[in-house]
Design a protein that fits this description.
Chains A, B: One of its GO terms (molecular function) is DNA-binding transcription factor activity. 2 copies of one chain form a homodimer. Chain A is mainly alpha-helical. Chain A has a domain at about 10-80: Winged helix-like DNA-binding domain superfamily/Winged helix DNA-binding domain (Arc Repressor Mutant, subunit A, Orthogonal Bundle), CATH 1.10.10.10. Chain A is about 65% helix and about 10% strand. The first copy, chain A, has a 3-stranded antiparallel β-sheet with strand order 1-3-2. In chain A, helix 1 crosses helix 5. The longest helix of chain A has about 35 residues, at about 80-115. Chain A starts with 10 loop residues before the first helix and ends in an 8-residue tail after the last helix. In chain A, about 25% of the residues are buried. Mean pLDDT of chain A is about 85; it is low at about 1-5. The interface of A and B includes residues 32 and 95 of A. Chain A binds a DNA duplex through helix 4.
Chain lengths: ~120, ~120
DNA sequence: CCCAGGAGCAACCTGGGAGTTGCACTCCGG
DNA sequence: CCGGAGTGCAACTCCCAGGTTGCTCCTGGG
């Protein structure tokens, strides 16, 4: 199931897409700093409308980065570290993989080079 | 030089923006798999034009994720793990920070709740 | 010296995301 | 029961990133 060779995580792309927008990152920052806040409150700290904030929160929620809880007539949003952590791990794995491949390619290249220059006598 | 303490990385946003596009991720995948390839070759493995590939490679290069080397009349591109690793670490740190804040908020909330219900006698 | 395959440039088109406005609905307090 | 605060939904505008086409400019090989 979780053994997709390359490009595992399903949610990774939504997380990346969500994180790509600066406003959404600001939003996450505020959310992380203030704990549980309503969209209206957040809009007060940003140069955008409440509606825009709501939309962004929707995207972030779809990516699993935040979650909202209804309290009376308001909705308190809070940050959700799990999704971010998963993406971070995915990324780290990818980086390590690249490193591995690069090392391999480099070794092969060196070997090939050594192989292809018998006539040359560097000292 | 590249040592901003926390919240740091200037390049993080460009990396995230670069990674947000699926085509660019495919591109990185191919690049990681094949080592050193030209834009034209890459375009052959993708449903887009060579020009589109070139543009994407430009973005990826600006984000420090790839680098191109001129060899004769062609340009070989290769993947650059450093930037990705840095972003991965930044992300992991951020996730940990959120976790910390959440734990704190939770503790405070619990304390406050305990504080606010002296009249109730759950016996 | 010529030509062919590859890279670079510039103008152009287009879909979707970010943002706004306007209104209907819901919930709490007096 | 009524009014106001707060949220939810929908239509609309604007802008830009992704993609294309059509060239020109190198460069290397015969």
């Amino acid at each position: 199931m979780t053994e997709k060779p390359a490009g595992a995580a399903e949610g990774v792309d939504s997380v990346l897409a969500a994180l790509a927008d600066p406003t959404r990152r600001r939003l996450l920052d505020l959310l992380a700093a203030q704990g549980e806040v309503t969209a209206t409150t957040l809009a007060g700290s940003l140069p955008v409308t409440r509606q825009a904030v709501v939309k962004h929160l929707g995207v972030l929620d779809a990516a699993g980065l935040v979650s909202g809880t209804r309290v009376g007539r308001e909705v308190r949003y809070s940050v959700q570290p799990a999704a971010l952590g998963a993406t971070a791990r995915w990324m780290a794995t990818l980086a390590a993989d690249w490193d591995r491949r690069l090392a391999t390619v480099k070794r092969i290249a060196e070997a090939a080079e050594r192989e292809s220059r018998p006539p040359e006598t560097p000292r």
